Amino acid sequence: MQEDFLHHIWQYRKFACIQLFTVQGEALQILHPGKYLQQAGPDFFNAQLRIGNQQWAGNVEIHLRSSDWYLHHHQNDPAYHNVILHVVWEHDAEVFRKDNSEIPVLELKTYVDKELLGNYLSLSSFKSWIYCEKDLPAIDSFVFKNWQERLFFERLERKAMPMIARLRQNENDWEATLFCFLAKNFGLNTNGDSFFSMADSIPFSVIRKEKFEVENLEALFFGRAGLLTEDKQDVYYGDLQSRWQYLSEKHQLKSVFVEPLHFFKLRPDNFPTVRLAQLAQLYHQRNNLFSIVTTAETVSELYAVFDVKVSDYWQTHYQFDKESPKKRKGLTSAFIDLLIVNTIIPLRFVYAKHLGKEVAEELMGFLEAIAPEKNAVVDKFSGFGITVENALDSQTLLQLKNEYCNHKKCLQCGIGIELLKK
């Protein structure tokens, strides 16, 4: 048993609350269980209780056993001097405050319904992947959809946080912020951080000035990413080298460290050279990209925005000095979906909050029009009978697995709480 189960029981009074008695034999009435803090100090703040004939206001601490009070050294911590009730599953030791007054104790195991306890033990028993895997198909669809919506906004808020931080740093330059996060997602998981550092180290005013020649953008991106430092016979490589040297001096670009880019285990179409060339074409061909992606009304419009191919050189190369059969190397619909899900939708969310607009239904509509991601997590949930029809489904399942299942937060999860009721 974990303490979070006891927190849940106390917070929502999931036990027989009539005719309660402390282990000291005094009648106990819960007027208010207190505020669940989930931080350092007592578990519940400012509870309102009647113990015996006296009303108390103060904090409540919860442990599996009374002796845990001493195991955690609470007797020496001033933060616990105002504890008015010690709630435990099993009482195995008297507990005293620093002034030697005894703290009243409520032993929960005598008041908790056996069926609720059985449900909890079943939910928290070991499974091969997640605790509730065998019970998922039994969850009411209305409950699941409501929890799914909550998960969507949690994930959206998490993705929005670094964007908000970047906006603060660049004085609300929305175009520059979009550039940084588009670059990160062009780099995928393997090179995303390096692409972000590359984009962040080039003032967006430079991109605005040099976007009219795609070779200048390629020179800036490849040069800053550390891909123009060798001696090669390739004529195009030499041209980009010269442009990079000229542009870095012209715009007084300071030297910065960017993590080396990785090619190993990547499909050729995902090589960082190809992705940087595609990013250069995007900014060469599209003016006011931020305005375009934040006003697009359909996914089809966004697909059209990102319908770009690489320059002539990169149609016959994956790396410098190594010619390959000609290929357009445009952005695939699956790759554009990733850009929409991980960059465009979070940024539209942040921008709407900035304007004080409500766009929840709109953003969910975008995700519902996009195919679900294909990965091991989504496949597992599908195997348990969960229907995954679109990106809204897959995104919320990723949030569920990463933020709840992986951390065993069943009692903070809408599904886990529903299973406890059953």
From TrEMBL:
InterPro entries: DUF2851. It comes from the Bacteria. Pfam families: DUF2851. This is DUF2851 domain-containing protein.
